[in-house]
């Protein structure tokens, strides 16, 4: 079981490295700059650490609320100190809820 978890972890990290590398490549071409593979590796490690911290915070918020499922309320709580990010997420959540409500109303006719 631990080997399976480690395999999944390594595959996720490899996918993240690929995604970060692709974004960095696009930016370096756009800005006519160069970066080293070490930079991409360090940036990937930093993003990975941030993802782990966010995941732990979201799990803690959910657990504190007595739930085993992370909800949008947990994500909004996580973003509470970044007003711009909070507003973007809140707008997205509100629009999604409105679209679902509108969709349900149409299907009842």
UniProtKB/TrEMBL annotation:
<comment type="similarity">
    <text>Belongs to the TAF9 family. CENP-S/MHF1 subfamily.</text>
</comment>
<dbReference type="GO" id="GO:0071821">
    <property type="term" value="C:FANCM-MHF complex"/>
</dbReference>
<keyword id="KW-0238">DNA-binding</keyword>
<keyword id="KW-0227">DNA damage</keyword>
<dbReference type="InterPro" id="IPR029003">
    <property type="entry name" value="CENP-S/Mhf1"/>
</dbReference>
<dbReference type="InterPro" id="IPR009072">
    <property type="entry name" value="Histone-fold"/>
</dbReference>
<dbReference type="GO" id="GO:0046982">
    <property type="term" value="F:protein heterodimerization activity"/>
</dbReference>
<dbReference type="GO" id="GO:0000712">
    <property type="term" value="P:resolution of meiotic recombination intermediates"/>
</dbReference>
<dbReference type="GO" id="GO:0003682">
    <property type="term" value="F:chromatin binding"/>
</dbReference>
<dbReference type="GO" id="GO:0031297">
    <property type="term" value="P:replication fork processing"/>
</dbReference>
<keyword id="KW-0234">DNA repair</keyword>
<dbReference type="GO" id="GO:0006281">
    <property type="term" value="P:DNA repair"/>
</dbReference>
<dbReference type="Pfam" id="PF15630">
    <property type="entry name" value="CENP-S"/>
</dbReference>
<protein>
    <submittedName>
        <fullName>Uu.00g089170.m01.CDS01</fullName>
    </submittedName>
</protein>
<dbReference type="GO" id="GO:0003677">
    <property type="term" value="F:DNA binding"/>
</dbReference>
